């Protein structure tokens, strides 16, 4: 595909995002994942790495129906980050929704392409069901150890999230990818722009499951962390983001960070 990810190379002619932003080796599409994943050209992606809405944050439905800031953030209202869409489903609806887009996105992936899905303990059983219902092979789980959590006396700390991973059919062991760790230890990012933003270095580590130089899809781009990690690490990346505020925030973040990196490289003595 070259260095520029053109819409006509990614999407079928009848599939058009609301808008898109991009640069060398990256592009973020603004629109609904359920619709856009159906429109991708078949067999173009080398990996799917994403952090979908968990639709958890509570054990009762009225708790899950709270805003994403109420569920996942302790920030005061005046400092709160924008809420994001798609996080108010009950468990049955969420599982069905996950299976639907996972089924369609598998068609857009190459044979053997890995998939990595972030999730918490509450939705762990459902996401493994959805992954397999959609035809992926579930291959295991890695752990993101955040190192801290809200303490609850007399209980184990909920200081980990999980990376459920698998592949689109057989996954040859002779791929040019090294042995990756099963536990990643990084604290939550400071000065984040998304309610559930993941650390940039964490994503740089996780995307190494993809073959070098491959094309990575993140159907829930959010703050653009996966897209930025991929572009800075020599991969190509395509993201989808439905929430207006995060489409703009994520796209701007990736563009500004990459431009700053290029400017710094140009200033280095030759």
TrEMBL record:
Protein's recorded name: Methyltransferase
EC identifiers of the protein: 2.1.1.-
Family recorded in the similarity comment: Belongs to the N(4)/N(6)-methyltransferase family.
Statement: the UniProt record of this protein carries the keyword Transferase: yes
Keywords: Methyltransferase, Restriction system, Transferase
InterPro entries per the UniProt record, alphabetical: DNA_methylase_N4/N6 (IPR002941), DNA_methylase_N6_adenine_CS (IPR002052), RM_Methyltransferase (IPR001091), SAM-dependent_MTases_sf (IPR029063)
PANTHER family: RNA METHYLASE-RELATED (PTHR13370), TRNA (GUANINE(10)-N2)-METHYLTRANSFERASE HOMOLOG (PTHR13370:SF3)
Pfam entry (one): N6_N4_Mtase
Gene Ontology, cellular component aspect: cytoplasm
Lineage top rank: taxon: Bacteria
Gene3D superfamilies according to UniProt: Vaccinia Virus protein VP39
Gene Ontology MF, one: N-methyltransferase activity
Enzyme type, top EC level: transferase
PROSITE patterns referenced in this protein's UniProt entry, alphabetically: N6_MTASE
All copies of domain DNA methylase N-4/N-6, residue ranges: 46-168, 188-249
Single GO BP term: methylation
């Amino acid at each position: 595909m070259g260095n520029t990810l053109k819409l006509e190379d990614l999407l079928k002619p009848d599939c058009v995002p609301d808008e898109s932003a991009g640069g060398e080796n990256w592009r973020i599409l603004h629109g609904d994942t359920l619709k856009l994943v159906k429109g991708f050209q078949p067999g173009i992606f080398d990996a799917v790495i994403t952090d979908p809405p968990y639709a958890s944050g509570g054990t009762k439905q009225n708790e899950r129906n709270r805003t994403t800031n109420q569920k996942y953030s302790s920030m005061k209202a005046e400092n709160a980050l924008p809420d994001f869409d798609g996080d108010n489903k009950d468990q049955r609806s969420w599982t069905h929704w996950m299976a639907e887009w996972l089924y369609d996105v598998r068609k857009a992936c190459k044979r053997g392409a890995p998939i990595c899905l972030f999730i918490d303990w509450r939705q762990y059983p459902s996401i493994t069901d959805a992954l397999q219902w959609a035809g992926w092979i579930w291959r295991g789980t890695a752990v993101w150890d955040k190192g801290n959590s809200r303490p609850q006396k007399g209980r184990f700390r909920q200081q980990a999230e999980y990376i459920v991973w698998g592949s689109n059919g057989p996954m040859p062991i002779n791929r040019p990818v090294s042995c990756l760790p099963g536990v990643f230890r990084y604290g939550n990012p400071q000065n984040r722009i998304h309610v559930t933003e993941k650390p940039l270095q964490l994503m740089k580590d996780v995307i190494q499951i993809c073959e070098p130089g491959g094309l990575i899809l993140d159907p829930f781009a959010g703050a653009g962390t996966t897209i930025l990690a991929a572009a800075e690490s020599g991969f190509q990346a395509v993201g989808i983001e439905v929430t207006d505020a995060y489409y703009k925030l994520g796209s701007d973040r990736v563009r500004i960070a990459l431009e700053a990196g290029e400017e710094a490289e140009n200033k280095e003595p030759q």
